[in-house]
C-alpha cells in the first residue's frame, strides 16, 4: 500500500493521529480508506463490509473527530445488535479516544441492571453505544436525551433487521435531529437494508468493499447426517478437523446447552453461550475462550453476534441457519487477518434446501461434501493451552499484579514466563 492509505493524509485532529501511531495503526484498511474521507465531510454513508474489516475505526474516527469534549451532551449514538458487540465497540472507541482528554463513552445494553445506567447518564456522556431495546427504554423513561446528537451509526444493520429491531430503530431516530449524519454499516445487502437506508438516510454515499477485499481463506465443507447420528458425527468431525479455538453454532438455546454439556462429559473444555445466561456468565465465558483456556464455544447466533476473537481455527454448523445470510456471519468468525480457517456444516436431507440457498448467496465459494469420519481421533489437539484464574479481589483489596504472579509461581510448579495477561 502506498502513502494514500496513511492516516495522516486525513484531516484528523492531531491527538487522534498521534494516538493511532501509538496504537500501531499506520495504514488504513480498505473500508477505512474508502469510507473515512467521506465520513469526515459529514455525508451519510451506506457501507457494505465484512466483519473484521476495520469498520469500527472507520466510523469511530469520524464521530470522534467531530466531538466537542467541552460540551457535556450526547453527541453520537452507535446502535448494535447485541450487548457483546456494543461492549467491544465501546472498548475500541475508548482506545481510539484515549488521547482526547475527558471523552466519555457509555455503553447501554439490556441484560444488566437499569438503575446504575441511569446513574451513569446523570454524569453525562459524549458517545452512547447500545442495543436498540435498552436505548428505547431509556428514551421512554426520559433518562436519556438525544436532541444534541449529530451522528448516528447503525452497526451490523443487517443483523439488527434479522433480529426484528426495525421498529425500535425508527422509534429511536424520532428522538434524534433530522439534520444528523447517519452511517449505516452492513455485511450483506438484503432488501430490508435498502429500504431502511431510504427511510433514515439522505443521499448516502454507497461504498462496497466486499468485492475488493482479499477473500477470507476459509475452506467450507458439509457432511451428510441423520437426526439420530448428528451428535456422534459432529464429535468425530470436531476431533478430526478442530483446532485450538473452535466455535459451534446451534439454532436453539436447548441444543446449545446440551451440546456443551455432552462435550464436557467427553473431557472437552467446552462452554455454552446463549441468551439465558446472565451477563457476568457471558463475560466469563468469552474471557475463558479468548484466553484459550476453553477450546470450544457452543453458541447461538444471537449470543455470538459481533464476537471479535482472533485465531479461531474452525467453525462448525451443528445445524444450518434458516437464513443463508446468517451463515456469512457465522463463518466470518474464522479465516481472519489473512489466516486460513475451516467451516464444517452438518446437513440432514431436510436441510439440503438451506444448503442450496447458502450456495446461491456465495456463488464464488465451493462448499465441498466430505465423508463423515469413521473413527474417533484423539482429542489431544483440543486440550486448552492456558488456564484462566478468576479472583474476587483487586486494587481495592491492595492486590497488585506482582502479588498474584508471586502467589501463582511460589511453589515452583509454574514458571513466571508461563503466566499470560
Low-pLDDT runs of 5+ residues are none
Pattern of helices and strands = HHEHEHEHEHEHHEHEEHEHEHEHEHEHEH
Report strand %.
15-25%
The total of helices stands at 16
Strand order of the largest sheet: 3-4-2-5-6-1-7
SS class? alpha/beta
Q: Sheet bearing the most strands, described?
A: 7 strands, parallel
How much helicity do the residues have?
25-40%
Q: What is the straight-line distance between the termini?
A: 33 Å
Q: For the residues shown, what is the average pLDDT?
A: 86
* Number of DSSP E strands: 14
- As a whole number of angstroms, the C-alpha radius of gyration is 22 Å
Spatial shape = globular
Overview of this structure, please?
Helix 3 packs across helix 4 and helix 6 packs across helix 8. It contains 16 helices and 14 strands. Strand 12, helix 14 and strand 13 form a beta-alpha-beta unit. The two termini are 33 Å apart. With 421 residues, it is α/β, with parallel strands linked by helices. The mean pLDDT is 86. The strands form two sheets. It has a seven-stranded parallel sheet with strand order 3-4-2-5-6-1-7, with helices on both faces. The protein has a seven-stranded parallel sheet with strand order 10-11-9-12-13-8-14, with helices on both faces. The chain is globular.
Amino acid at each position: 500500500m502506498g502513502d494514500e492509505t496513511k492516516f495522516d493524509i486525513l484531516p484528523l485532529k492531531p491527538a487522534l493521529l498521534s494516538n493511532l501511531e501509538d496504537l500501531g495503526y499506520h495504514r488504513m484498511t480498505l473500508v477505512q480508506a474508502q469510507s473515512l474521507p467521506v465520513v469526515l465531510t459529514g455525508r451519510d454513508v451506506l457501507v457494505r463490509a465484512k466483519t473484521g474489516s476495520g469498520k469500527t475505526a472507520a466510523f469511530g474516527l469520524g464521530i470522534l473527530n467531530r466531538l466537542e469534549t467541552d460540551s457535556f451532551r450526547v453527541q453520537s449514538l452507535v446502535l448494535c445488535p447485541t450487548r457483546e458487540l456494543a461492549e467491544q465497540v465501546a472498548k475500541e472507541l475508548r482506545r481510539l479516544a484515549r488521547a482526547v482528554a475527558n471523552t466519555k463513552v457509555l455503553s447501554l445494553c439490556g441484560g444488566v441492571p437499569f438503575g446504575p445506567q441511569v446513574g451513569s447518564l446523570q454524569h453525562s456522556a459524549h458517545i452512547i453505544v447500545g442495543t436498540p431495546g435498552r436505548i428505547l427504554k431509556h428514551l421512554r423513561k426520559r433518562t436519556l436525551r438525544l436532541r444534541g446528537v449529530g451522528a448516528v451509526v447503525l452497526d451490523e444493520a443487517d443483523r439488527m433487521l434479522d433480529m426484528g429491531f426495525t421498529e425500535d430503530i425508527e422509534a429511536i431516530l424520532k428522538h434524534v435531529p433530522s439534520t444528523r449524519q447517519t452511517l449505516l454499516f452492513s455485511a450483506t445487502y438484503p432488501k430490508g437494508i435498502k429500504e431502511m437506508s431510504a427511510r433514515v438516510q439522505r443521499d448516502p454515499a454507497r461504498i462496497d468493499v466486499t468485492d475488493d477485499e482479499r477473500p477470507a481463506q476459509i475452506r467450507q465443507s458439509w457432511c451428510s447426517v441423520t437426526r439420530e447420528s448428528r451428535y456422534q458425527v459432529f464429535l468425530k468431525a470436531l476431533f478430526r478437523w478442530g483446532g485450538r479455538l473452535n466455535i459451534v453454532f446451534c439454532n436453539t438455546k436447548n441444543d446449545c446447552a446440551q451440546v456443551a454439556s455432552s462435550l464436557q462429559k467427553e473431557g472437552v473444555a467446552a462452554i455454552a453461550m446463549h441468551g439465558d445466561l446472565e451477563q457476568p456468565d457471558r463475560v466469563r465465558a468469552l474471557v475463558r475462550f479468548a484466553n484459550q483456556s476453553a477450546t470450544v464455544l457452543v453458541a447461538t447466533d444471537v449470543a455470538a453476534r459481533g464476537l471479535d476473537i482472533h485465531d479461531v481455527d474452525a467453525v462448525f454448523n451443528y445445524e444450518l441457519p434458516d437464513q443463508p445470510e446468517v451463515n456469512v456471519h457465522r463463518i466470518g468468525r474464522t479465516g481472519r487477518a489473512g489466516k486460513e480457517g475451516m467451516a464444517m456444516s452438518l446437513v440432514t436431507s431436510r436441510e439440503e434446501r438451506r444448503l442450496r440457498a447458502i450456495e446461491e448467496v456465495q456463488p464464488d465459494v465451493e462448499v465441498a461434501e466430505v465423508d463423515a469420519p469413521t473413527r474417533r481421533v484423539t482429542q489431544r489437539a483440543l486440550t486448552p493451552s492456558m488456564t484462566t484464574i478468576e479472583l474476587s479481589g483487586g486494587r481495592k483489596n491492595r492486590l497488585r499484579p506482582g502479588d498474584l504472579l508471586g502467589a501463582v509461581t511460589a511453589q515452583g510448579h509454574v514458571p513466571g514466563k508461563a503466566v499470560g495477561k
